[in-house]
Amino acid sequence: MNETIEMKLPKDFMLGAALSAWQSEGWTDKKEGQDSFLDKWYKEFKTVWHNGYGPAVATDFYNRYQEDIQHMKEIGLTHFRTSINWARFLTDYENAVVDETYAAYIGHVIDELIANDVEPMICLEHYELPAALLEQHGGWGGSRHVVDLFVKYAEKVFERYGDRVKHWFTFNEPVVVQTRVYLDAIRWPFEQNTKTWMQWNYHKGLATAKVIELFKSMPLREDAKIGTILNPEVTYPRSSASHDQEAARMYDLFFNRIFLDPAIKGEYPKELFELMDKHDITFDHTEEELAIIRENTVDYVGINLYFPNRVKARDIAWNPEAPFHPAYYYEKFDMPGKKMNLIVAGKSIRKSCSIWQCASKKSTAILNGLSPKMVWVSKMKHALKTKKA
C-alpha cells in the first residue's frame, strides 16, 4: 500500500546538496603539474576505481554547472556545498600564483548559484592536496611548510570570493585520506606508519586554526563564517560492561575527538597526549602552535554522519611485532540482526537490514562536553541543525 506523507520544513531550514571538485569537475582545462592526490592515485592505481571511472571525467560539472544549478533551483535547494581544487587553483604552489582560467570558472559557479537563489558553501580542501606537495614534502605529514602553503592558497581564495561567499570550510573529512593510506594501508601509496597518520591529523588541525586566524584579519563579508566538516562515527559499545565501554571511549578519542576537540574547544585531550607518548606516535608540535589552535576555533562544524560504529574489548591479544594501531584497544563488533527503522512524522516508513542506524540522541551526544557551536548534520537520512546557545 502506497502512502504519501507531507512535511512542512521550517522557514530557515537549509535544504542543500554537497559534492567536491574532484568528484564532479573533470579535467577540462587542467594543466600539466596540477594533479591532486586523487588524480595521482587514479593514474597510478586505476584498477581499484569502479570500471576505471574517476576524476578525469567525473560528472563534467566544469562544463555543465549552469545546467546543474538550474536543476538545483528547480528542486528547491537553498544551499550547495562544493570545494575548490587546491591543485588546480594555483599553477605555482610555493608562490601562490593563481590559475586565472580555473579561478574564473569558480567565480562563474559562485555567481550562477547566487543568481539562482542557491547559497554557495565553499570548502578549501576535499582531498585535493596537490600531488607535488605529497611528493616533495610528504603532504600533510611532512614539513610544516605545507601548512604555510595552504594558508597562502586560502588567502588568494578569500581575496577572490570573500565578498560573495558567506559559508566557508577548511576541510571536508580531514581524517579520511591518512587513515586509508597510513593507518590501514588500503589506499595508494599503501604505507603503514601510525606516526605519519598522527602528524597528518595534527597538521590539518593546525592548518584550520591558522586559516581561521587569517580569515579574521581579512575584510570579508560581515556575516561570513568559517568552520570545518567532520565525519565522526557515533560509537556504541557492544555491551554495558566496563571493558566494552572503554573500547568505545578509546575509539572515540582516536578518531572523533582528535578533530572535534581542537576545532571546537581549542585543545587536544590530555589523555590523547599520554597515549601518543606511550606508543611513540606523538605528533611534532610547539607550544606556539597549540596557542594558535587554542585562540582560533571554528564558528561552526559540518557533520557528515554516515553510520554508527560498534566496538568491543579485544578478544585476541595484539601482535607485539605489529606497529601500533588504535585497534590495540578495541575490535569491531557486527551486531547480529541489526535493522533500521526510519521514523518520519511519527510513522515508520521503512524497515530493512541496514548499517543505517541513525539516532538523533546519539548524534547530539557525540558533541557532549564541547562548547556550543552551530552544527549541520548532512549525508544521512535526516538533517539536524542546532543554533548557538
UniProtKB/TrEMBL annotation:
This is Beta-glucosidase. The lineage of its organism: Bacteria, Bacillati, Bacillota, Bacilli, Bacillales. Belongs to the glycosyl hydrolase 1 family. InterPro entries: GH, Glyco_hydro_1. Coiled coil: none annotated. It comes from the Bacteria. Pfam families: Glyco_hydro_1. One of its GO terms (cellular component) is cytosol. SUPFAM superfamilies: (Trans)glycosidases. GO terms for molecular function: beta-glucosidase activity. It comes from Gracilibacillus boraciitolerans JCM 21714. GO terms for biological process: carbohydrate catabolic process.
